[in-house]
Amino acid sequence: MTPNPLLGVFFHWLGGLAAGSFYVPYRGVRNWAWETYWLVGGFFSWILVPWVVGLSMTRDLIPTLHQAPSSALIWTYVFGALWGLGGLTFGLTMRYLGMSLGMAMVLGYDAAFGTLMPPIFRGQFYSKVVGTTSGRVVLLGVAVCLVGIAASGIAGISKERELSSAQKRAVIKEFDLKRGLLVAVFSGVMSACFAFGLAAGDPIKQITIAHGTNPLWQGLPVLVVLLFGGFTANAIWCVTLNIRNGTGHEYFSSAVCEQADQLETGAMLETVNGAPGREMASATAVAVLVKAEPERVPMLSNYFFSALAGTTWYMQFFFYTMGETKMGVYKFSSWTLHMASIIIFSTLWGVALHEWRGSSKRTICLVVLSLMVLIASTVIVGYGNYLGIGPR
What we know:
globular; mainly alpha
């Protein structure tokens, strides 16, 4: 397939738009616990949609997976499960460090490890990256992306400083720098395992192309295996919470349990790869204590909005795999493009939903600066890949 970095960047932007938008449909879910709607949405994003899309857009999906080396299948699955753990522990980072600092640290680790470790493991980092002009331009783009992530974190910290003391205590009740840093490292590295899983699935890509699949869709069979690993980790945690919190009935019953008070949640902020922990959902919710009144759970609409959210979530990696095929020899840089695009569109959604309303001019300027730097990083990475097409 002929590389086309410009088209590749465009696909990654579409993936970032999907990743930054998937949580919006969850705003329509009513009277379900986080673990319930997250698992329902996850079934669509990690099981149903990957199989439907894979079967309809690739050739011989099941024979392809049957012929794939056991090592490729196992490692792709394992990395998917580890990615799931990274997303779930992301919420703990928010608990110990707060939204802004925690998110900036995890995204930074995720972007750096997810982008740089694949070429390092392949022994190509010095020969094809550091040792070439195009490779150094790509590295510059990665560095600029990290600066943009840092600027985004500083903007969030600036916003938090403008909160009242009561609001600050509500945001970071269990601040613990040492514990938070350790969890942030774990979450960032584990979240980057999604990129490792995509790389581990390279033999599967070759087999599906040999079966006649258009090279543009070669990553779709890999997603079937990788996302099943992610589903495993998330399903275990969600079912555990269903049992512990007595919320398992919500999948089948429209009755609302009587409680003195309940937490009405609003928008949920996007995380690294769209796998927020329960703490994350609570920390980013618009929390209002309301008196519970007898009512029926809107089962049909809850399933619909959860399915829509899950399908939208999947589309980020549908476009990601397409973009990766267009990036040429530096396809590892796709992870940086993905991270940058997620933050760009998540921030824009935050602006549209008035999450920054009332912030100071300084904070708003930092938000604008972070967006400009992140956009610049995607341009630089794309240009580096463009240089890599010709003689180096």
